[in-house]
Amino acid sequence: MSNEEWFPLIDEKGNVIGKATRQECHNGSKLLHPVVHLHILNRQGDLYLQKRSMSKDIQPGKWDTAVGGHVDYGESIEEALAREVREELGITRFTPQPAITYIFESAREREMVHAFYTRYDGEITIDPVEIDEGRYWPIDEIHQNLGRGIFTPNFEQEFQLLEPLLTGNTKPLG
């Protein structure tokens, strides 16, 4: 049995049209595949970010969304989100709220991002293989560091899209 990771290939409406390996999806082929992101806010309105492990093949050592991961072939978006949150941060009880779905494209990959948010003040246990460190960032501190090369480009783009929702300027968080 192979340890190769298989991702669903999807069309621009999110319908599964095939499958491909992680390597095939990340080699510049632009095969569209789904991922999940979770933004975590604490009671004070600070946003939890993870610093990607230096061993990551994409954007090592950069600060990123609290949780981000691929949907495995045969897995639902909700199942992938629960698995990734459990694996990366050790959180098993949270209430995700859908935020936005969009296509992110870089030189190496093309992903349909399903972003969620939640409020959480419990314990977080990071996976040291995936994450070098994690902490809550005040929104002002995120603003002060945008464009300085410490965040992933995907996080910066997504943060700017979601900031009104995350800060309560459009509707209150759950």
What this model shows, in words?
The protein has helices at residues 22-25, 77-89, 139-145, 153-166, and strands at 6-10, 16-21, 32-41, 47-52, 63-65, 67-70, 97-105, 110-119, 131-137. The chain is globular. It is 22% helix and 34% strand. The protein is an alpha+beta fold and 174 residues long. The protein has 4 helices and 9 strands, in the order ββαββββαβββαα. Strands 3, 4, 5, 6, 7, 8 and 9 form a 7-stranded mixed β-sheet that branches. It has a two-stranded antiparallel sheet with strand order 1-2. 32% of the residues are buried. It has a single domain, classed as Nucleoside Triphosphate Pyrophosphohydrolase, CATH 3.90.79.10. The model has no long low-confidence stretch (mean pLDDT 93).
Identify the CATH homologous superfamily.
Nucleoside Triphosphate Pyrophosphohydrolase
Portion of residues within helices: 10-25%
CATH fold-level assignment: Nucleoside Triphosphate Pyrophosphohydrolase
Based on CA inertia axes, which overall geometry fits?
A: globular
Which structural class matches the secondary elements? alpha+beta
Share of β-strand residues: 25-35%
Spans of at least 5 consecutive residues whose pLDDT stays below 50 are none
Radius of gyration: 16 Å
Mean pLDDT score, rounded? 93
Oligomeric grouping of the chains: single chain
**How many independent structural domains?**
1
Number of helices: 4
Tally of strands: 9
The name of the CATH architecture is Alpha-Beta Complex
For the sheet with most strands, the description reads:
7 strands, mixed
Termini separation comes to 43 Å
The helix/strand series, from N terminus to C terminus, equals EEHEEEEHEEEHH
The CATH class: Alpha Beta
Protein name: NTP pyrophosphohydrolase
Organism: Barnesiella viscericola DSM 18177
Keywords: Hydrolase
Pfam family, one: NUDIX
